[in-house]
Amino acid sequence: MSSTTEVDNRTGGRPALAGRRRPRWLWPGARPEPTAGRGPSGRLRYRNRWIAVLAGLLIVIMTYFPIIFVVSNSLKTGNNIFTSGVFSLFTQFDTDNYIKAWSGIAGQLLNTIIVAALTIVIGVTAAMLGAYAFSQLKFRGKGLLFLAYVALLLIPWTLTLIPLFLTIQRLHLFNTWWALVLPYAASAQPLLVLIFRGFFDQIPSELLESARVDGCSELRVLWRVVMPLTRPVLLTGAILVTINVWGDYLWPTIVIQDPSRTTISAGVQQYVGGLGLNLHYGGSVFAAFVIATLPMFVLVGFTMRYFISGLTEGAIKL
Prior knowledge:
The longest helix is centred in the middle third of the chain and has 41 residues, at 96-136. This protein is mainly alpha-helical. Helix 3 (96-136) crosses helix 7 (189-200) and helix 3 (96-136) packs across helix 10 (231-247). The protein has helices at residues 39-74, 78-84, 96-136, 142-150, 161-170, 178-187, 189-200, 205-213, 218-229, 231-247, 250-255, 264-275, 282-314; strands at 5-7, 15-17. A hairpin with a 7-residue loop joins strand 1 and strand 2 (15-17). The protein has a two-stranded antiparallel ribbon. The protein has three domains: 1-33, no CATH class; 40-74; 96-314, MetI-like (MetI-like fold), CATH 1.10.3720.
């Protein structure tokens, strides 16, 4: 063996450089250090990253282009829409369309707010009571009854239209707001009870027992102890109810014949239908769409944090 090399038993007798420390990647059992951006795996990660960026960009465009499209055309006159085309963005800024649209759907917008408020009070309160019973009270057949209750989520809303319509007629509620409020509140119960119960199950039983020992009834425990702790999930239920009321078109057109009592979805359709095929009012049609959807954007935008926290916290034990 020469003076510049020596035998290293750890390398199986292969000569190693004397007087030098071998690189870390030559140590027995060590893996070569990866080189960023080189090799097939680096190129694959680079390509996948660009695919993800392009896919995200496409989703953003598909999500926001309809909004930009509607807002742009709501600021045009009917003649401008006809001459420049609907896809020419922001070629004119005419705010008179919003004045015309507001005069046509303001009453329906107020009706929707009233119906949503009544539905929230009745629906969320009933769901809170039911969820508390399923979560904290003990009675025979509770599990089976809860499964049957939640199984109502599997029944499509359209299959209940005829029974609901006949019930509304027998109760003489046709063409009244109660024909909207009561079915909306009832249809929201399975989902709200499911979410609320998951949240109520996380409340420490010792906290509730201490309130009972102090002489509080179950209703008092619910009002004084449970409700302050469950505000996020209650707000989530209120948002879900509001979105359901705001976006429903079919049921108001069935049970409400008076245009002054209908809600915003049916009201916009009636407003657009009343304009006919007159292209002069094309901009006001788009303005009506913007006015009808803007409250939901504001509601969800300002309450998204509470909405997500309520859903996630209520779904931990589901």
